[in-house]
Amino acid sequence: MVNPFQAFRTYAAPQREIPLDRILAQRDQTLQQLLQSYQAFVEEESQQLVWVVEQGALSRAYTTAVNVLKGIEFAVEDVEDMCMELDGTVAPLASLGAPSGLFIAAMCNQSEECDITLNLRSMARRWPFLGYRLPRGRRLFLEGDVGDFVGALLEGGEVTVTGNAGNYAGIGMKNGRLQIGYSSGKHTGEGMRGGVLEIKGRITELGKVKNGTIYEGEQQVFPPRTAPASSKASSSKRKTT
After folding, report:
1. What is the DSSP string of 199-236?
2. Distance CA 197, CA 214 (A)
3. What confidence tier does 99 reach under pLDDT thresholds 50, 70, 90?
4. Higher model confidence: residue 59 or residue 7?
5. Which residues, at least 6 apart from 86, have a Cβ–Cβ distance to it below 8 Å?
6. Rounded to the nearest 5 degrees, what angle is found at the Cα of 150, between the Cα atoms of 224 and 121?
């Protein structure tokens, strides 16, 4: 009897590439590119740690971060992967919180997507400078607590934090909206020049604010609201009677 499957004995099914494998390989390659760019950025900036408190040096460091990201195509998922990668490493360079946070901020500002969500709840580090110079038309949603300088020099974008913020929240804000779900630390709104800063919980200490609007809960704390003239007059009248 002739085997009906004889003709298929030497048949080999063509190997098919599983789309998920290709996607994962591509994401891994992108992450490696991002890590190399971050390494180059930090090696240059770690020699000048004083830049953290110097405005000119801070701007220069941010420009460096933007430049090393040029030519790398990355998605929102890659931004969160980068956060997890930096959070999980114990390398000395990665432990420099300020450069790390600034690099992540540069990624958010250079991403093709205008709406970015980062889940920070499971991360040990509290990245500073998230939302730094976020431009108009972009929204950054941060789940969990953040470090110092969140929303620094905000340029019209919208930053929402579901948890607490560290010190100097909204420092130097030019425009836009920064919303903190719980409380903020010292020097909140320091040097703020415009925009709206909303703290749903408590403000530990208000900084030297120049302009803009700040709320603590439902109360506007800057500029402080003044009682209407009619209310003042009636109050004065009650005191004299």
Report:
1. ESS-BS-B----EEEEEETTEEEETTP---HHHHHHHH
2. 5
3. confident
4. 59
5. 38, 94, 100, 104, 125
6. 120
Rg for the chain (alpha carbons), in Å? 25
Q: What is the DSSP string of the chain?
A: ---TTGGGTT--PPP---HHHHHHHHHHHHHHHHHHHHHHHHHHHGGGGGGGG-HHHHHHHHHHHHHHHTT----HHHHHHHHHHHHH---TTTT-HHHHHHHHHHHHHH-S-SEEEEE-TT-S---SSTTTTPBTT-EEEEES---TTTTTT-EEEEEEESS---TTTTTT--EEEEEESS-B-TTBTTT-EEEEEEESS-BS-B----EEEEEETTEEEETTP---HHHHHHHHHHHH-
Instruction: Tell which residue, 201, 108, 188, 207, has the closest CA to residue 155.
Output: 108
Query: pLDDT tens, 47-69?
Result: 554 445 555 778 888 998 999 99
What's the predicted TM-score (pTM) here?
Answer: 0.78
Among left, alpha and beta (phi > 0; psi -120 to 50; other), residue 5 is alpha
CB 150, CB 130: distance < 8 Å: yes
152 contacts 192 by C-beta, under 8 angstroms: no
C-alpha 127: how far from chain center: 8
Inter-helix orientation angle 55-69/97-110, to 10°: 60
Burial label, 1 (beta-carbon count in 10 A; 0-12, 13-18, 19+)? exposed
Place of tokens 């969160």: 80
What integer pLDDT is reported at residue 121 of this predicted model? 93
